[in-house]
Amino acid sequence: MSNPSSRQWGLEQIVAELRASREELHRTRHPRGIRELPSREAIVGIVNGLRAAMFPTHYGAPDLTSESVDYYVGTTLESTLRLLCEQVRRALRFLPEHAETPEAELTERAFEITRALGAQLPAIRAILVSDIQAAFAGDPAAQHITEILLCYPGVLAMMHHRLAHALHQLGVPLLARFINEIAHSATGIDIHPGAQIGPSFFIDHGTGVVIGETAIIGERVRLYQAVTLGAKSFPADDDGTLVKGRARHPIVEDDVVIYAGATILGRVTIGRGAVIGGNVWLTHSVPPGSSISQGNVRAETTHADELDAAKRAR
Fold first, then answer.
1. pTM of the predicted model as reported, rounded to 2 decimal places
2. I need a surface site. Which of 42, 43, 158, 240 has the fewest CB within 10 A?
């Protein structure tokens, strides 16, 4: 059969069944029928543009000079922020508070948010430089800063996260989540944009790292691959709907090191300077300066349980 017709494909029946699934049986459309969605392609271009503006000699044009670099940064920011403003406008429409916002007002709000993000870029760059320096200091295999900027997945993930977290704080959670999921796809590192992460943060290797929405991480913290900072349980309402927004992920204080495969669950605190060994499973807090390994985690857990029992007895 050289050129089958639509009738031979059975397209009329397929289209009808897809319409029924889409409109009646298995609806996935937003309840308000929003059709104008943020664009993944545009967001990838925006993140690349912002990275190029912050680190032009590594991610920008290859022939930049000291005379042309400022012009390049300015023109790149101009075009990138225009693209970002449109994506922010589209994302804002998904917030309940903007369900009925007039289009002109929504556009103005998107401009204000985009301008605020632009103003934060020098501070975001500064904290990213601290992350890059932490990677160089923490990895004996690192030869120079350029290698880290071009090759390290943890740094790529943090570039996305620092931008996404700023947008999350500015009230655009959908766009923020979009940015971090693009990094997740590229690196295997899954960081929720709501997570609060201090400066000089280093993820070595990176694949399989998960950091939850309400996690709080201090300064100079180092994680290795396959570390999970997750939730222990998910409270639900009487009707079974999960309660949103509760603090349910760990707090990791300054100068903590967490080795490969460790899993830390719940709103527990890992004290300053603690070292959590590989493949440890933790669901309780540990004091500052602790060293937890598979061999002693049971003893630590028993001691924590005894302290909890003593508190309850009082």
1. 0.87
2. 240
